[in-house]
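FAQ: What does a multi-protein file look like?

Like this. Sequence, then tokens, then the next protein.
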Amino acid sequence: MGTKQDPFDQFIDHLQYERRLSVNTVAAYRSDLSRLTAFAQQRGIQDLKKLATPQARLFAAALRHAGLSSRSIARVLSAARSCYRFLLREKAVAANPFEGISAPRGERKLPSTLNIEQATQLVSIQPVSDRDYRDRAMLELFYSSGLRLSELARTNIADIDLSARTIVITGKGGKTRIVPVGRHAAEALQAWLERRPVFLSEPMEPAVFIGQSGARLAPRSIQKRVEHWARRQGLDRSVHPHMLRHSFASHLLESSSDLRAVQELLGHSDISTTQVYTHLDFQHLAKVYDQAHPRARKRK
């Protein structure tokens, strides 16, 4: 920057001397705006004060083509938008070409999951102590019903109907839903509830999962027990409660492909949140294709 054709010097001075931003912040703005200057020079744009919205869109596309991440593109566009907003206030430009132009959405990071064998390995606890029975019931319920950590911690005795194998869950925003409890989870819960009185100090304690003090287990304590059993069961990876929720959703979708049903079971208000679980393994898809498509099946 710093050329006669470059209208950004005034903005940089404004940041440095009027807003008194740090040296590093000003340098970051200068670096981001230099990308726009270079773009204009490459395309023969003589006057950046007359940059039009279509050219601003091309600049955003050029950043993407250059391999910048969505976060970096957003930062550069924000710098350009702020600069032109300042120039507009100073009546140096007629319009802000970057108003309304946003960075492309970044790829949503897929949640970490256990495969079916790993999930089975984790929950297949051979209990010895009363605490083992409690922990097995927690792990089975996480994987069986796809509960959030906070939901499991809040679960009360009155919420569970073992005869119907259902549980009433109070989720985000106080919304309730009824979810099924699998056979193994129901058996583990029954075994724990028979031993739960040993832990009780207050007969009226409503929580399903309590510690040795007789009080409701805190989410952090539950998380530590999940980490403990991941190590003890021989899983060579870090495991957290939400990973079991992810695994529940992923495995259910692999078997049923019923996105709406999984949305209801997870308690998602927006189906787009559930769609992140549709990352079926390509080999699984290929296997289904080979078995189902008439032009893929091998003739006997």
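And here is the next protein:
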Amino acid sequence: MADSKSSLKLAPLDGASRRTAGVTFAARLVFDDIHHHYGKRHILKGLSLQAEPGEVLCLLGPSGSGKTTLLRIAAGIETQTSGRLILNEREISGPDLSLPPEKRGIGLMFQDFALFPHLTIVDNVRFGLTQLSRRDGRGEAMVALERVGMAHHAMSYPHLLSGGEQQRVALARALAPRPGVLLMDEPFSGLDSRLKDAVRIETLAILREARATAIVVTHDAEEAMRLGDRIALLRNGRLVQTGTAEDLYHRPADLFAAGFFSEINVFASEVHNGLAMTPLGPVKSPEIAEGAAVSVAVRHSGVGIVEPDKGSPARIVARRFLGMEEHVTLAVPDGGGRVEARVRAGDVPAGAREVGLVVNEKDILVFES
């Protein structure tokens, strides 16, 4: 969907342009010890997680971590090898049963929106309302389109809409049956970057109004922080950490989690007398055992560049202007290697070479190796 139409400006979603989203009966969805195999490949490895009623839970992780597989299992498109799915204390998939997708009360919004090109917008939204008559289904579809500010496009066809407008229609279709849980697989990945922020805000507002439980798959940590009440970080089919954006950013469980939420410099060291030595100076490590091997992570944004006599010595070897910021690569002496820094544009003089480095203690994280 990332075509030239995606850059068209969307009409604002406000009370004057759309109807307030109807309330759904938000459900709790529990994944209990989920395992899944594709042939000999073990994709999900004992994953346990739950989405609470009315919350937006983001599944975050790199490609191949199992995010979309977990979503497909929840939707009933695939069946787990073992483990159970429980919706509001009722088992919907397990060793003895697996309800078909249409019986689960779970909605799914696909990554590419999956709108039928030969159907009008209103008929696309009506498509999932199979238990209603044509007239009633069309009425519910129009209500859903009003909620997302797209009623005026009811008789249009998908190819006439921008990417952001198609996303709204797909959301209307997913919410029209009032599902207990809404699943969204990378719903903003096909949008022009200039539209993403606006569409995310609009989508989140609609989910809040509908009080829907939503599980959103993304590989973008910033997007997860913008959207999620909680974030579940996955890696290689396992759950690494769950928590709020603040939890995962400030208190990452391991080096992988730290690197997923911010760009980091990593230095190998050992702890002696409560300190780990790094090219940027000693780092306090009082809770780690004497002699333990550690990885010291320092966020790029936590490295400050100052005058040579006011910090650890370094030499600028490369710098790139990024608008509000500048990315600077520095060499440190005595085999310390390279250090990456992100500083405010204009803070470092254009001709500077020999500089000093200082570090914000809040941007230092220490993990046992």
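Q: Is there any per-entry metadata?
A: Some entries carry free-text notes. For the entry above: The helical segments are 67-75, 121-126, 134-147, 163-175, 193-210, 221-227, 245-250, 255-261.
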